Amino acid sequence: xxxxxxxxxxxxxxxxITDGSYQAGDLIPKEVELAAKYEVxxxxxxxxxxxxxxxxxxxRRKHVGTIVKQTKIAQEFTHVIQTYDCEMKQxxxxxxxxxxxxxxxxxxxxxxxxxxxxxxxxxxxLTRLRSAxxxxxVVVTTYLPVKYLTDLGQIDFSTxxxxxxxxxxxxSVIHVKRKLEVKAANEITxxxxxxxxxxxxxxxxxxxxxKKEIPIEYSIATYRGDENYFLIxxxx
Length: 236
Hints:
6-stranded antiparallel beta sheet; DNA-binding; Bact_HTH_transcr_reg; 2 domains; 32% strand; elongated; two-stranded antiparallel sheet; alpha+beta; Arc Repressor Mutant, subunit A; transcription; transcription regulation
């Protein structure tokens, strides 16, 4: 059966990606340029490019263009408790952290129940944007009970590890429960993660407990769906 023109273009571009002609992070030419080069219509090019986006070879990025995608990052925190920095380092990536918000706050009912707080208890609300090799990867908001961590407000979490700071206070997280959802990115999350609004994201709720089963952490992490996958290791 004769292949459609868009399929031929798709194969050409895929080969250029797999043989290294286009490297991860490279911008491919604009659709109008590709249409002129291959002497086809722009809708034909758009169809071919979308096919490669769907297959994970390309990514459309707001305000940038269409780029060759990086290999997805394997996230192992579904079965291992470790810091984000350590996990990225093990994969040969450099982690960066930007603190977007860090203040004391009155907890919502959801947070109060997660941390088993009383009516007048306060929490620290810490929101961080975590990146890998300069690419935004996850936005995480963490709630921590002030009553156990009265001095935490002086810590710079753009350079310091939260789990290490908890460990220093004999409040190490040694047991976690996690709930996973898949959602569509809202406008704010999309801007922070440099993805399109309504793109799929992994949405994790994490409940962290100390050795005395004190609920010390409640976090909501939003991971890019296009750059991450999650390993689950089960044993009988």
